[in-house]
Structure formats: C-alpha cells, structure tokens
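Handover notes (outgoing to incoming on-call)

Open items:
1. D-3-phosphoglycerate dehydrogenase: sequence verified, structure written out, both below. Nothing else pending on this one.
2. Nothing else urgent.
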Amino acid sequence: MRNGKKNFIIDFDSTFTQVEALDVLAEISLEGHPERKDRIKKIKDITDVGMNGELNLRESLDQRLALLDAHKKDLESLVERLKKQVSKSFKRNKEFFNEHADRIFIISNGFKDFIVPIVSEYHVKPENVFANSFEFDESGKIVGYDRDNALSLNNGKVEQLRKLNLQGDVYVIGDGYTDYEIKVAGLANKFYAFTENVERENILEKADHVTPSLDEFLYINKMNTAISYPKNRINVLLLENVHPRAIEQMKHEGYNVEVYPAGLDEDELCEKIKNVSVLGIRSKTQVTARVLESANRLIAVGAFCIGTNQIDLEACLKKGVAVFNAPFSNTRSVVELAIAEIIALMRKLFDRSTFMHQGKWDKSAKGSFEIRGKSLGIIGYGNIGAQLSVLAESLGLIVYYYDVEEKLALGNARKCHSLQELLSVSDIVTLHVDGRPENKNMFGEEQFNIMRDKAIFLNLSRGHVVDIAALKANIESGKIAGAAIDVFPQEPKSNNEEFISELRTLPNTILSPHIGGSTIEAQENIANFVPNKIMDYINTGSTSNSVNFPNLQLPTLENAHRLIHIHENMPGILARINKVLADHDINIVGQYLKTNEVIGYVITDIDKEYDKEVIKALRNIEHTIKFRVLY
Ligand SMILES: NC(=O)C1=CN([C@@H]2O[C@H](COP(=O)(O)OP(=O)(O)OC[C@H]3O[C@@H](n4cnc5c(N)ncnc54)[C@H](O)[C@@H]3O)[C@@H](O)[C@H]2O)C=CC1
Ligand SMILES: O=C(O)CCC(=O)C(=O)O
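D-3-phosphoglycerate dehydrogenase structure tokens:
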C-alpha cells in the first residue's frame, strides 16, 4: 500500500450527506400514498438494522425498494433535496475535494443515479464513484438494480476496494459497518467513524478515530484549510446546573460539552479543568489562581450570572483567559424578589404564615405597615439598584440611594453623599453592591447602629458584605425589625448539603437559598447571552462585554487569516509583532490593539497566503501569553 500517496474512501449516505438517500426518496415517492407514514418508518428501520450490520444488504435493498414504489422522475427531486443536505463540514471543505480529486473515491451501497450529481459539485470524478445503479421498466418505475454489482452484497465495499488495488495509504471515512469492514479486511490504514450526522455505537468502539466532522479528520491529518481548529476539540465544562439552553447552544456549535449539576471545590476543579477550553460556572465555583495553574487549555470562563467575585480576574488575565458574564439578564428577577420581601417583612408575613401552619391564629395589626410613604435606602445604584429605584417609587416608596460612583438619579430618587446619610433617613435599607474584596464586612455593627430603630434590612448582593454576627445581634435586640437575606458568606455547594447559619430561627427573617436570579426567564436569558459571547470570542476574537479583557468588537473575517496575540502589557510588543510580520513580507489587511494594565490584545488580519513560519516567530515573541490563528 505504500508509495506516500493518500487515498480517501468516503461513504455517501449519512456521511457525505446528512441523511440516508432512500429515506428521503421514500418521502418523495410515497407522497399521497395511503400507507406513507407506515412505509417510511419501515424503510428507516430497515436502513438502521442494515447499517448496524444486522441484516443482509441485498435483502435490505430488496425490502426497501419494494416499499419505495419509486419512479425515475422522483430522482430529480431527490437530487435537489440531497444537494441541500450535504454534510456541513463537507460543504465548508470543498477545497479538500478539489485538491485531492484524483484520490477521493466514493464507495457506497447506495445508487450512482443520485450520488454522481451530488458529489460532482464537489469535484469528485464520476469514475471515482462506485455504487449500485437502478433498473427501470418502460414506464420509468424503479424495479430493481444491477445484481452483478458487488456493492449490493455484503462485504461489497471490500471487494470493490480489492479491485481498485489502490497504491498508497487508504483512509476510510464512514458511519456504517460496511465502511469498517474495509479496515477489517486489511485494505485500509485507518477507519474514521464519522459522527456528524449519526452515531452508531457498535462502530464507534471499532474505529481508529471518531471524527465528529470532516474538519477533525483533516486536522488530525494536518490537511485543514477551511477552519483553523475543529470545534469538537473545544471541551466545555458547565457546572452549577446552568440552564439547558446553554448546553444546547454549545453542543449545536459543535463543542464537546460536559455538564455537572453542582459546584466543585478547588481540588475537584483543579483535576477537572486540565483539558477544558471553556468553563461555565455560576456564583459558587471559585476560579482561583491555583485552579488556573492546572488549566492547560483554558481560553474563556463564562460566569452564568452577574457577580464575578468568585473568579480571580487578574490571574485569568495573566493566563490570557477571557471572562464573560451576563450583566443584565437576571436584574429584573432580583428586583422583583426585593420588592416582594420588603412588603412581606413590613407585614411580618412569613412569621404569620409559619404560625398558621402551626395552627396559631394571630390576627393583629401590631408591627405591620404599608410601604407607601416609607423611605427606601438603596446601597449600590447599579443595574439592580437603579431598577429597584424605579419600581419602588411606583409603589409609593421614597427612594434614597448611595453609590461610591457618580450615578444619575432616576425618577425622584434622592442621592445621598454618604452611607451614614442614607442609613439615617431610611426605613428600609437594601444592599446591591458588587462583591469586590473591599466590600467584605462593609456592613456591620457601626452601620446597624446608625440605622433607624425598627428598620428593615435586605441583602441580595453578596454574603461576605455583611457581618452576620452583627446582623444577628441587631435582629435579636429588635433594632432591626425584619431582614431578608438571600446570600451568605458560606453557601452549600449543592442542594444535598445542609445550610448552616447563625440566622436560622430568627424572628421576621426571610432566608432564601441565593435565588435572587433564579427564575426561568433570567436563567434562559443568561443561557442565551453568555454562550454567544464566548462563541463570538472563539470565532472572531471579539471581547465586547468581557469583564477582564480590553473590549474589542471586531469585524467578521473575510478572505483573511486573523492572528490573535495576547501579551503582557510591556512597551514595544506591537512594534515587535509588526517587525516579525514585515520580515516575512506579510500584507496586513487590518490591525486592532487595545490594552489594559495587565495585557495587550492585538488582532492582525492578514492575506491568506503567507509563510507559515511567521506563526512560530509570533509565538516566540517574548512576553507572549497566548497566540492563536483564526480562519
Ligand atoms: N442574589 C442574587 O441571586 C443576585 C445577586 N447579585 C449581586 O448583586 C450585585 C449587584 O448587581 P448589579 O446591580 O447588576 O451590579 P452593578 O455593577 O451594576 O452595580 C453595583 C453598584 O454598586 C456600587 N458599589 C460597589 N461597592 C459599593 C459600596 N461599598 N458602596 C456603595 N456602592 C457600591 C458600584 O459602584 C455599582 O454602581 C452583583 O454584583 C451580584 O453580586 C446579582 C444578581 C443576582
Ligand atoms: O443564580 C446564581 O447562580 C447567581 C446569581 C448571582 O448571584 C449573580 O448573578 O451574581
């Protein structure tokens, strides 16, 4: 077999095209037939049994043709339909077919009548197509096939290949048992199980390599020209029960997705993250510098939430890992919960309901108030705080706010110039600051002391922001008449762990398991938003909305290769990149640079034809953190 040349044997049904052609032919030929549904199902079943090697091929063909009741004219419609259903990775790799036309062979147990018109559009030579041929009666009805052709028999592909007596290496790409048989007969160097359209368990185990797309096959054989990196090689790990829409989107993109329902602790994550390219988490999983040390392939982290205090953003930057979150998707849910809790606390609703469940009827107005005309102090007037301000005002609350940054007052909200000022005027105080480390215990005994007597207190931001012992003492003393706490310094990793807190059993205290953003709407919004940001980053290099990378919105790549260079922010790196490009006579089509304190992010679009040595030279520039090429 050896002369250095490579021959490619490619199956047609469910490999070259996404479908089984006879199944599609049945849909056409049985149009209007009284047994259409039933027959189509039978045909599909026979196909599957045959593909798994459990039914004699000739029998399978005979049975299907009898059920098909097809005519020559149906073949025209079939070809039109199949043209639209060529496998996606085949469509984008037309160049491969063109370049290797002499050495590409379609060997199929299907029929030349429809195979040739489809594959010819991909530069496959008609004389390189080996398949059966239909036989028609005078009226054009399909009545049989050429029975002398070995391809209507079991092991027919093997026999055909023997006849071909190909010189050089032979690679077989197919989804079925008959493709695998070629390898078993010793006529192929390797069998690649093609799973872009169907996965047949019994074939997967036997394959030399499972290839979820033609890109993967070309990549491992160093022949990829259509895309820089096969998407199935991008391993995604999604933790903490992210919404199924995210899983669906990332699988649809072609990524290899693993899902885990709970959070992982540092040791577990260090182990799990080794080969992960994209990590998806919510608020629990801590992405520490130590975790990042173990992350050999990580390119992006998606926080399926707003807060990113659980991620060491600086360590991510230093490692060239871009972090994305969903800054708006669950804000409304948090606001609605805060409003509900304010009313519930002002009416002592939870305690009253608990008493009722214990059989105690306590009808009284004591300690119960309307919220109308009361003052609400919002600490942290960001996306949540500002939205709460508008809703609260529409319910008749007088809104005060305090923020460390200059913020525009919405509606009639009144700005406070200090936290003390806000605390001294508010009947209800609610925290909506972010979880930056400086906010640890920002609310403690001193702040509770300044608050009005019998005020209400809410924290739906982060647990470490409040000194829990001080909160407990102030609830017990009656200074705080009610509290709603959704976030805690220590939260259970999963629903199976016990919640332990000093706040348990305190009066008029609503404790909720960090569910501010846990609504179907919010989770679905997040699951639409974050994967798209990550996919955009992987596909184009765009970093818009990244929480740690310099934000760059890039044009789509057309007729160029994109070089993405992430480096430590040092003087002169851009000059060095451009010197390397000039030394290799590279024509720059576009260049974009943005830096922050830690990294520089340079994108250079160049003409497609270039000396590949330049890639090595760019990678070797001192202070390079990460480098990748996109096309
Ligand atoms: N309970 C839950 O399920 C959820 C909790 N959150 C938490 O809520 C936080 C706020 O969310 P967004 O409003 O979207 O964030 P944001 O970033 O838009 O707003 C936070 C605001 O707090 C201000 N701030 C920070 N520290 C402050 C301080 N010490 N004093 C006064 N102002 C301060 C900031 O300047 C900013 O304006 C998130 O960072 C997250 O930790 C967010 C969503 C759901
Ligand atoms: O729902 C979650 O897992 C976290 C919500 C949250 O705290 C956030 O969005 O920052």
